[in-house]
Amino acid sequence: MFKKYLIVxxxxxxxxMNITNSLMQFRPSPFINLSSNKPYFDIYIxxxxxxxxxxxxxxxxxKYDFIIFVSxxxxxxxxxxxxxxxxxxxxxxxxxxxxxxxxxxxxxxxFNKALFEKLNEKTSEYNFKDYNVTMEAxxxxxxxxxPCVFIEIGSTEMEWKNSRAGFIIAKTIYETIxxxxxxxxxxxxxxxxxxxxxxxFNNLQLKSNVAFSHVIPQYVMPITEEMIIxxxxxxxxxxxxxxxDWNAIGTPEQRDEFTxxxxxxxxxxxxTSDVRR
Length: 277
Known about the structure:
The protein is 31% helix and 21% strand. The chain has helices at 14-23, 30-35, 58-61, 109-125, 157-160, 163-179, 202-207, 225-233, 252-264, and strands at 4-10, 40-46, 66-73, 83-87, 132-135, 148-154, 187-192, 210-216, 241-244, 269-271. It starts with a strand and ends in a 6-residue tail after the last strand. 45% of the residues are buried.
């Protein structure tokens, strides 16, 4: 499905450089890449912030099938949790951190699922229990035309510099790239509702047949028809249904209005409780 991957990091980002330094040990010779049919990755170090589209060489990105952004995760919350996280970039209400308002990036639900599964597997294998492995809702820039994903270390300088965290993410990326295969039997979905850290969707991404491309959180309510169409159109696999975190999509009246929009446009949906584990 994908053969040529590009790993993108900013020289100013401690976590991104930590991860790319670990990735170097897994990178084969470029001459082997050119002569092999196996998937491979290159590394692209950007001098400025990777959240800003204008800082990226679009011609370079367009030479690859899939883009993986590696970076730090930071939060305005006083609780600075240790995290390893995965999410697709894009913006719904505002574009305060790069990208464009109302626009999201192209996303592979299947690759997102494989990456998240592998990240959980590696943290367990290396007994890395202090860090919370989580998906995040779709947020921030950049906005590019290639399918992409962010994988991040959070949430303070101490975690960003942690060499074990950098190694685990590097190992996750490398093994996912080597092992990833298209699975036509997965159910392709977009997650709707809930909090930023996807507490009710993480389990489904790990333990059900559903694969999520984008997550639209409750805090961008009201969730509009335009948001739904944008995320469906930017999911590169054939979309099957929305998955709704039913009790975390606003008030009963807001849920009623939202499902009327879905029914009007014949958009299939399920509650999280109806998804088979």
